[in-house]
Structures are given as C-alpha cells and as structure tokens.
Amino acid sequence: MPLTPRTGFDRLAATFPTAAALLMNTGPPPDGTRTGTAPSATRRRKWPGRLLLLCLSLGFVAILCEVSVRLFCPPFIMPRWVENAPYGIRKQIGNIRGFIVTPQYRHQLSTNSKGFRGTREYAIPKPANVFRVVALGDSVVNGYGVEDEQTFSAVLEKKLSTKRPAEVVNMGVPGFGNAEELIQLEHVGFEYQPDLVILGYFVNDHFENITSDLYRLQDGKLVPNPHVKEPSIYLRDRLSRIPGYTFLCQHSYLVNFLRLKASGFFRGTLSRKHALGFNSYTGESVTEEQLTLTSALNDEIIRRLDAKPAGRSAQAKGARAHRGCGEGDLAGGKHLEHRKARIVSSESARARADRRLARRVHHPGSLETVAGPLPSAA
Fold first, then answer.
1. Structure pTM?
2. Best exposed site among 136, 170, 219, 350 by fewest CB in 10 Å?
3. Residue 153's closest CA among 218, 195, 106, 200?
4. CA 100 to CA 106: how far, in whole Å?
C-alpha cells in the first residue's frame, strides 16, 4: 500500500520529482543532462560571499573592541621602534617620526638616520675642536615623556655649546639594560670618539641584565652567553614585517592593549625562568645575583673606557685618563683632548633643577658622583 505524503514538500516531490531534485541539488537538470560538477560549482560561487561576510564580521568585532578599549581602559601608546642590529642586540630604527601618548603627556619622537634620538646627524670622524658626549641608556635616557629638544641630552648639548662646540649623542634605546649598553658602547659608541660617556641607570636595569641572557658570571668573571633569541623578540620581528602593523601600533589602542598584555606575559615568563620575584622588574626586590652581575657589567664598561683614548680613534694611543672633572672644566675646555671618557650613572634622564648629574649606586667603587646640577628641561 503506497505511503501518503505527510508534508507539503513530500507532496511536491511526489508530483514534480525533477523540481524537487533541483532543490535538493540532486537528480537530473530539466534538460535531462547529468553533470557531477553542479554542487561543487555552487559551493565555489558561495565562497566569495562567505569570505566577505567573515571579513565584515571580524572588522565589526575589531571596531567594537577598539571603541571599548578607548572608553574603558585606554593603554599607553608607547611603540618601541626597534629592529635587530648586526652585532647581536636590537637598535632603534632610523628616521622615525612618531609620537608617544599617555594620560600624563603627549609628544613627538624623532630619530636620525642611525636611530639616535632627535634629527641631528653626527659625523664620523668627529670634527676637530668638538667636545662630544655619548649618552647610553634605556627609554628614560631616550626621553620618553619629553619632546626632542627637552631631553637631557639636548639640554646638555645646548648648555655646553655656549662655551665651545659640543655634541651630545643620545643613544638610548627602550628596554636596554647595562648588558646591551656594554655591547652598544663597543660596537657603536666608540665609533663616535666620545670625550665623555654618560650611562643612564634605572631601577629595572638589574632585571634587564639577568633576563637578557647576554652575560653570566663564571668564577667571578663576566662571560658572554651564546646568542639565543627569546620568543618575544622572534614574535616582534615577525609582526614588524606585516604591512600596516607599525601604523596600528601608532594609532590603535586595541593593538597597544594587546602589546602590553603580551609584554607582561613574556616578562613574567622571563621572571619565572630566572627565579626572580614579582617585584624584581620595578627594583623593589633584587637578588644577590642581580647585584653582582650589574656591578660586573658596570665595571666592564669602565674597563673598556679606560682602554680607549678619549675623543680619538680606537687605534690612537697615549691619552691619559682623568676623572672627576667638574662642569666648569668641561665648559672651559681645559685639556679636553687628553681627558678620558668616563661614566656617569644617573637616576633619571628627565631634567630636574634639584637633581645632581649623577648618583652612586650599589657599587660606589665603580661610579663617581659629579657635583653639577642637571639643567632643567621644563
């Protein structure tokens, strides 16, 4: 006994089987020919529409997240314009024209063709009768928080130039510790034949010196480690090659929010790897290993300065070391050609009238105190 169709489609299929087969993408087409490519062709025609729908959906979600981050938890916009250097560490990208945005300040940030803060170029070899200063450090020395002309290096250059031709080369790179600064001095700093070297010291340098894995202490001696690229550096290098990523880092609060979260994750990973405390990054909790390594790095910087004549090429010999010269001697230019480049450890790179130019840190035998006030950058 035949079954009675129970639905409208069943009745339609019983009456018009060819039409029902077309609706189900099965069965012969109306002209009676058969083809096995009809379903595949239909799916191919649908893909562009589906891809467009996916892109629109992702774009809508991204815009919604961007608006939410801007309204409820706006992060700092503090891109790190850095790239790998041929001597094993990172360097600041040249010819940057960007800006830094935080709740406290907003300012432009420029670099010259070599990646040094500001737009001024510096000749190699050093011009005759020019007193040249090289400033090493991290984002504090680089001048995050002030315009190019308000960095302590720019203020110092302006002040010294009132007495004699002077140049202050700001080589600060965000994220640097003393380990990177030692390598930078050897491969870059000495090329500029400095008469004076200023090392900007910050409270997180202990952390950076350990987690960079560039040096270790072996039997009391400073030993370079084999270069191992950290996952965070690998990820940064790959992202920086994506077209438009730099633009998003400069303008998108969502991208900067994700960057800060990723940075915190990798920092925590490095802390656990080296068994460092939660407050180690801020300098509130410092281990004996950190203190010892930092002291050794600063001593090594001074040792290499002692091995180089001030203001001369690496091949020049015979210049004598001289430490403790005050600001008046520097400005007056007494015997500057024969003076040794020396190291100054500063607590902060932002100029303040009440701050002295340098302070002693945990290893007073290595670092000197200079009795000159730091010019105001306000």
1. 0.68
2. 219
3. 200
4. 6
Question: SS3 string of 182-220?
Answer: HHHHHHCHHHHCCCEEEEECCCCHHHHHHHCCCEEEECC
- 211-246 pLDDT, tens digit each: 888 998 988 889 998 766 666 666 777 777 788 887
Burial per residue of 167-188, b for 16 or more beta-carbon CB atoms within 10 angstroms, e otherwise: bbbbbbbbebbbbbbbbbbbeb
DSSP-based three-state secondary structure for 346:
strand
pLDDT tens profile 97-136: 988 888 888 899 999 999 999 999 999 999 999 999 999 9
Residue pair 123/159 in contact by the 8 Å Cβ criterion: no
Residues 368, 321 contacting (CB under 8 angstroms): no
- Respond yes or no on whether the N-terminal peptide bond of residue 125 is cis (omega within 30° of 0): yes
DSSP 223: E
Neighbours of 28 (CB within 10 A): 13
pLDDT value of residue 271: 79
- Provide DSSP, 97-156: EEEEE-SS-EEEEEB-TTS-BSS----SSPPTT-EEEEEE-SHHHHTTTS-GGGSHHHHH
What interhelical angle do 231-240 and 253-273 show, nearest 10? 160
Choose among 166, 115, 121: nearest CA to 311.
166
As given in the structure block, the two tokens for residue 3 are 């079954």
Residue type, 43: R
